[in-house]
Write a structure and sequence with these properties.
Largest sheet: 3 strands, mixed
Shape: elongated
Structural class: alpha+beta
Order of helices and strands: HEEE
Number of strands: 3
Helix content: 10-25%
Number of helices: 1
């Protein structure tokens, strides 16, 4: 079920504080976060986030097209290696 429109976007408070601070100072340093559940708002545009995927931090540069999506969508947690190959020897 989707979130109510009257509530607005969900953004973790500590992340929102970091964004406001970066906007005031004009800093372009990457913002490190574990908050994959936070929705990208127009305030995030132009910032780089280091989003934790459970093992390491993935750099995510936010553009206009990302508004409304979650930060976790851009930091995949699983890595596809390959399907099983042919194991028998050909004669």
């Amino acid at each position: 079920m989707a979130r109510s429109i009257k509530k607005g976007f969900f953004v973790d408070y500590h992340l929102f504080e970091k964004i406001e601070k970066a906007n005031k100072t004009g800093a372009k340093k990457p913002i490190q976060t574990w908050s994959r559940r936070s929705t990208i708002t127009p305030d995030f545009i132009g910032h780089t986030f280091n989003v934790h995927n459970g093992k390491l931090f993935i750099a995510v540069y936010v553009t206009e097209n990302m508004v409304g999506h979650k930060l976790g969508e851009f930091a995949p947690t699983r890595v596809f290696k390959a399907h099983g190959g042919m194991t028998r020897k050909e004669i």
